[in-house]
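chain below, 205 aa
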Amino acid sequence: MPWKTAPNTNRANTVMASAIGIVSGLPRSGTSMMMKMLEAGGLEIITDHVRAADEDNPKGYYEFETVKTIQDDTSWLPDTRGKVFKMVSMLLPHLPADESYKIVFMRRDIDEILRSERKMLERLGKPTDIVDDGQMKRLFEKHLKDIRRSLEEWDHVQWVEVWYNEILRGDVEPSLERVNRLFGGGLNVKHMADVVDPSLYRQKA
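prediction:
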């Protein structure tokens, strides 16, 4: 396989046997953190390690480049059953309805997302003024409204919403409870909580 999994065996993995786990959300919304939490909790995660950890994500991006092909190729999806991968929320509508998905949808204050994205682009030496922040915020808000409506309507999806802001401010338990229930109650929530690093909460609204 072109990717690497972190194998574990627990009740959550049994629940996941026929389902596909996905961590999704807008860019810079805490999806990498949640991937690391699920890995610590005992789930098998999929990452290809193409994108290395850096100053913006010092604990890794947990990217899986293959997801970008989903509009044209879904042949790889069956091999991800029982595992979890990361997918930006704009690609969720392309998930075929003949599979079952458990989705952790990450939310974060949009102003923080925009600040974090701008900081990353500045560090990479890329332009930051292609789209006005106000316009981008409106686009993100519309997208979130549309995708949440879809998530509520799709019969092939079970999902929970988790706020990055709450976790990094120390209100971890409610989020962990929702995620643990989604995966059948077999996650190691203590190990998941240990992953949280408040020092990485650098762009605050």
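The chain has one domain: 4-200. The longest strand covers residues 101-107.
thats it, cya
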